[in-house]
Design goal:
The chain has helices spanning 2-31, 59-69, 79-84, 90-95, 132-145, 151-158, 181-191, 214-224, 231-240, and strands at 36-39, 48-53, 74-77, 117-123, 159-169, 197-202, 228-230. The chain is α/β, with parallel strands linked by helices. It has one domain (24-240): DHBP synthase (Alpha-Beta Complex). The two termini are 34 Å apart.
Length: 241
């Protein structure tokens, strides 16, 4: 029994050490403008997103997310930042609109959360807005606004809607209010000391036609040297820190 107990203690310690090393690796990757993979949880969307800090996004990042992830490429932003831009959630905008059939507006998603979608935008210097170059410009320029003095003025003069990159607004309170990829990615950017704006894209599986499994994501992460973060463990880290 003592041998088994010691084994379990050592396993727990080593697992905790491994996670904190993985988290540190993830933060360093974000700081270098590199990707991380982020899993929310099996009880939620059960999806892995490719994540990169928006301030570093280039056309190469967008091409890789398009080719290796394949989901919807979005910009996740901090709630206070969204407020400074006078942005609202799309379900709130539609609720206040003259839409005749308000029953079309999504309430809670099947996994239990309100969607975080707001407007979809293009930077004014883009052409169609959908190319790798155009979306990279939209994403990187969105991150730059965070540091300017008159954010709303800069935003309204620099972006057009509707566009090709959806904005996602992180919940106020971040992980204490909602545990989605939007909140988790913004939280990771914050603790990395970066602008709280991220580019995220769900990883899809062309063989099964559903979201990429955790096993396949782990294989991809190992092959490409990308840190894979488990959302449940990130929540535990956030509670302690």
């Amino acid at each position: 029994m003592m041998v088994i107990t010691n084994f379990l203690v050592n396993f727990i310690i080593s697992s905790s050490w491994f996670f904190h090393m993985s988290l540190e690796d993830a933060l360093q990757s974000l700081k270098r403008g590199e990707f991380i993979l982020l899993f929310d949880s099996a009880g939620r969307e059960n999806e892995i997103d490719m994540v990169v800090a928006a301030e570093f996004v280039t056309p190469e990042h967008v091409a890789r997310m398009r080719q290796h992830a394949g989901g919807l490429l979005c910009i996740a932003i901090d709630n206070a930042f969204a407020t400074s831009l006078d942005l609202k959630y799309m379900h709130e905008i539609l609720a206040d609109s003259t839409l005749s059939n308000k029953g079309m507006i999504m309430g809670l998603a099947p996994y239990g959360d309100h969607p975080t979608f707001s407007l979809s935008v293009n930077h004014y210097q883009t052409y169609t807005g959908i190319t790798d170059k155009d979306r990279a410009l939209t994403i990187s320029e969105m991150a730059k606004i965070f540091s300017v003095e008159n954010k709303q003025k800069k935003f309204t003069s620099s972006f057009k809607t509707p566009g090709h990159v959806p904005l996602l607004i992180a919940s106020k309170g971040l992980l204490s209010a909602r545990q989605g990829h939007t909140e988790m990615s913004v939280y990771l950017a914050q603790i990395a000391g970066l602008t709280p704006v991220t580019a995220i894209c769900e990883m899809m599986d062309a063989e099964t036609y559903v979201a990429l499994s955790v096993d396949k994501a782990e294989k991809y992460a190992k092959q490409n040297g990308i840190p894979l973060i488990d959302g449940k463990e990130l929540l535990e880290y956030a509670k302690v820190n």
